[in-house]
Amino acid sequence: MQTRTLKRPETELYVVEAGDPSKPAILFLHGFPDCHDLWLPHMESLSDQFHVISFDMRGAGKSTAPAKAHGYRIPRLLDDIDQVLTLTRGPTGKAHLVGHDWGSMIGWDFVSDPAYSRRVQSWTSLSGPQLGVARQWALDNLNLRAEQRNAALNQVIHSWYMLALNIPGAGRAVFGTASTPIWKLAHQLGGVPRGDPHLKRSRREIATLTRNTFRLYEQNVLTPPEPPSIDGIRVPTQLVILENDVFLRPEVCEAMTPFCCNLLRVRLPANHWAPVSHPELVTEAIRGFVGSYS
């Protein structure tokens, strides 16, 4: 893997890439609490066909943290993605986009913004709806008949931590004192098998993934971006539904369906961290979809 550092006004981003730059590109976006190495097995498998790219989002892994909490607002993160594309593909270069967890939540805003979506050839989302859509879906369904109301309540229960991290000082207290056990517990609940190499991080490594990036929750969850317009996402989209996800239930992820003009749904019998627990299934879903639009 080749590595570079991209200097931005509020952060320095650690960028990794492999494969032939003359081939179609795939840019992978990780979530919380992860970094680019979530995608390394997929990048290695796909690097023979594609120019594969990822980066540590601001404050995670080897990327530096913004000095101010508002540095984690989604509009700033969208510009980071755009600048990584410029660094690796040139000022007008394009890529297929793949996101998981927060990488997916942020990716939806990238592909729904005409200023950015022109750079995206296809979009694959795993386990992360657009935040404005998720909020509106929960509010709407809490007022409907029992089946839909139960689905919304179920999602609220499963995502309690998103609200808890908006309590002033909660994120700093939790991830300043108990980041290692919480990180490991979350990954195991999310389907990473015991003994998996992904779980064998040092306390210091886990601190680089959690001590700053929890601000994604406090800066965006209660004041999310507006939902896109119905049929407003023109980018060909693959919505990978993880049927056993304990954090983001299939129903809230499927709420993105009306906003996509060109949508393929794929259901996998996997939990939240499917990129770790089921790498072959995820890689093949990406390869097949991206290949049809390259």
From TrEMBL:
Residue span(s) of domain AB hydrolase-1: 24-278
Regions that span the bilayer: none
InterPro entries linked: AB_hydrolase_1 (IPR000073), AB_hydrolase_fold (IPR029058), Epox_hydrolase-like (IPR000639)
One GO MF term attached to the UniProt entry: hydrolase activity
UniProt keywords, alphabetically: Hydrolase
Keyword Oxidoreductase carried by entry: no
Signal peptide: none
Keyword Hydrolase included in the entry's annotation: yes
PANTHER family linked: EPOXIDE HYDROLASE
Protein name: Pimeloyl-ACP methyl ester carboxylesterase
